[in-house]
Amino acid sequence: MTSPQTTPAPLVSVVAVNYNCKKWLDRFFPSIQAQTIFDRIELVLVDNTSTDGSDKICQEKMVGWANGVFVATGGNYGYGGGCNRGAAVARGKYLFFINPDVWLEPNCLEEMLKYCERSGAGIASPRVLDYDSEVLQGQGAAGFDIFGCMTSPREGELLAEPFAVAAFYFIAKELLLKAGGFDEEFFLFNEEMDLSWRVLIMGETIRQVPTAKIHHQGASSGDRAVENRTSEQKRFFANRNQLLTLIKGGRFLLLGLVFTQLWLMAAEAIAGALMARRFSFVRWSLLKPIADCWRLRKHLAAERRREHRTCFVETILFVAKRQRKLASHAVAGNSSIRSRPERTVETMSFSKVLSGLGFHLTIPATLWLANIRLSLRDRKRFL
Question: 104 has which bridge partners?
Fold first, then answer.
């Protein structure tokens, strides 16, 4: 690991996890250097033992950077593992997690920093555009459908408060540590959705900053064309991690989504096996994900207990803070606040239910999540 020279602590640490991203580096580094707040950021480049020579290129590009740190992990720990190792050495108040297969518009970091500093928000998300155009690639997830799959906002809809971040996380370091960081068991896919749900359970709100723009390689052309075909390994990680996310975060009725997700996985496995004409697709997309969730049962139980404790503490703190506020208003002779119940129940959008039927519901995420936003008095009314 190379360390930066002694400099004042940066406001933002860009943590970029690299694994064989050689063909994207020629645009990535200049976009970091072009940031309008470049003098107030640091770049923590984490390499998961790349084999295409990109690790050496990254080290060469960062020579002389007073605000650059190169971290060689010595193995491939996946996206979440790389992010956690980068966060451990990052010095910024805020952390921005990305891969090097992106380029940032010059004011991207400044816009997210200004928004968080002005609003006090702990999490922000940029608008994700295609690599070679201004076409919107993603805004994050709006919620779940009845099969437990993440849903996207409707066409033309601006998702101001997404349920889950669209791949790239801008988060206060203190909040990340409080949430426990990224779950390294995921390795590939869904890490940001799992973390998003955990911070929502903690009572935080995710905000999208439309003026902060980042271009991602998901739809590039020419010699950078991306192969989007699936594979048995991709189906394993995608399906297993979707189950892990639902089991870890689900409470009460939402745990029922685990079973509808299993039904969908079974249908996908059978259809895929018939089209590919090989039974191994069933094994990788259905049987192995279930078996691996069982293998991780102790980890899942420990995570649920930790989230339970965190949620309980946040509930007590919220209730205590609100009761102090009510008491102060009562002393001041302002009793009207008691008659105005706050609209504070966090809801999760269940959009695009039953796919093309367009059936849309908005329901409380869970009674447990609602507890974070309700005082004891309001909770009795809600129940």
Answer: 214
Q: Are residues 237 and 210 in the same domain?
A: no
If asked whether residues 138 and 243 sit together in one domain, one would say no
The whole-number average pLDDT for the span 299-305 is 89
Pairing outcome for strands 143-144 and 150-151 = antiparallel
* pTM score of the predicted model: 0.77
Residues 137 and 275 in one domain: no
Note whether 139 and 281 are same-domain residues.
no
Parallel, antiparallel or unpaired: strands 68-72 and 41-47: parallel
Residue 4 lies in a domain: no
d(CA 115, CA 123): 10
Two structure tokens written together for 217? 């390689």
Count Cβ atoms below 10 Å from residue 287 Cβ, excluding itself.
Answer: 14
What would the pLDDT profile of 75-89 be if each residue is shown by its tens digit? 999 999 999 999 999
Last residue of a domain, one of 207, 224, 241: 224
Q: DSSP letters of 177-209?
A: HHHT---TTS-SS-HHHHHHHHHHHTT--EEEE
